Every structure is written in structure tokens, then in C-alpha cells.
């Protein structure tokens, strides 16, 4: 699963190897969308936050201060956004079709980080996917793949016990 994240984020930042975060940096946009998905059910669980931090740290090769700066920039962008259009319009300029699908898969992985999926999380991802031009069929496929990964991990943990 993390190989998939790594490939996605390497493509996303290939032309953007800055130490700081410009306001239009797609990494901020990705972090903000992830936070909006985490907040959709009314609570950010530690497992979701941990998953996002680990994802951003590993895929962007950020140290503690840089990771904190990206999380803070993503949170600020997320809290000042009126709707999803601001983020999705920005990402449509930076991502190709394959990368947009991969982003939807990543958002589903964050949803399933706590082992649960809420109606509000479904709705948020539906809106984001729609604005990114990801079809319902593709969105559902990505949801099913994320759910299967969670099941696989649970089975592996049960077998280890």
C-alpha cells in the first residue's frame, strides 16, 4: 500500500522540490483534502491523523518541522476553504487522470484508517471525486479496494495473534 502512496507523491512533487510550501503547492492541497475527509464524520480519530502524518512523512521525506509545517498549512487551507472546488480545481491542473484516481484511493484509505466508514465521509469523497472528474464506478472501485486492504490487514493481524 505504501509503495502506491510513494509513487503517487513522487509524481506529484517531481517538479516541485522546494523546501518551503508555496500557497499553490499541491502537497498543501492534498493535505487539506485529506483533513476534510477526516473531519467529515465530525471527529478526527487518532488513527486517521496518524495515517495522514505517516503518509506525508514517508512520501514527501519530511522531517519533524517540515511535516508540522505541511500539516499546519493543510489545516489552515482546509479551515479557510468555503468548498471543495478551490482544492479540486487546483489539483486538476497538477494531476493527470491516473493521479486523480490514486488520490481518491488515498482518501478512502484515510477513511478506513479507523476501521469505519460514515455516510458523511462517503458524501465528501463523492463530491471530491465528482469535481476531479472521477466517475462513480471508479470511485466505488477505489472504495472497494481500500476496504479489501483493511480486511487483508485485519486477517494478517489475526493470523499473527
From TrEMBL:
Q: Which Gene3D superfamilies match?
A: TerB-like (1.10.3680.10)
All copies of the Co-chaperone DjlA N-terminal domain together span: 28-144
Residues folding into a coiled coil are none
SUPFAM superfamilies the UniProt entry points to: TerB-like
Pfam families xref list: TerB (PF05099)
- The name under which this protein is listed is Co-chaperone DjlA N-terminal domain-containing protein
Amino acid at each position: 500500500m505504501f509503495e502506491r502512496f510513494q509513487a503517487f507523491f513522487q509524481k506529484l512533487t517531481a517538479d516541485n522540490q522546494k523546501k518551503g510550501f508555496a500557497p499553490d503547492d499541491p502537497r498543501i492541497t492534498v493535505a487539506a483534502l485529506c483533513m476534510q475527509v477526516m473531519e467529515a464524520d465530525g471527529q478526527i480519530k487518532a488513527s486517521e491523523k496518524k495515517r495522514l502524518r505517516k503518509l506525508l512523512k514517508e512520501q514527501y521525506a519530511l522531517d519533524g518541522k517540515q511535516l508540522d509545517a505541511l500539516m499546519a498549512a493543510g489545516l489552515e487551507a482546509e479551515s479557510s476553504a468555503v468548498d471543495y472546488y478551490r482544492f479540486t480545481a487546483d489539483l486538476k491542473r497538477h494531476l493527470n487522470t491516473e493521479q486523480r484516481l490514486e488520490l481518491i484511493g488515498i482518501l478512502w484509505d484515510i477513511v478506513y484508517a479507523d476501521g469505519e466508514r460514515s455516510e458523511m465521509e462517503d458524501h465528501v469523497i463523492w463530491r471530491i471525486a465528482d469535481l476531479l472528474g472521477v466517475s462513480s464506478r471508479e470511485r466505488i472501485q477505489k472504495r472497494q479496494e481500500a476496504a479489501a486492504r483493511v480486511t487483508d490487514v485485519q486477517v494478517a493481524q489475526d493470523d499473527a495473534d
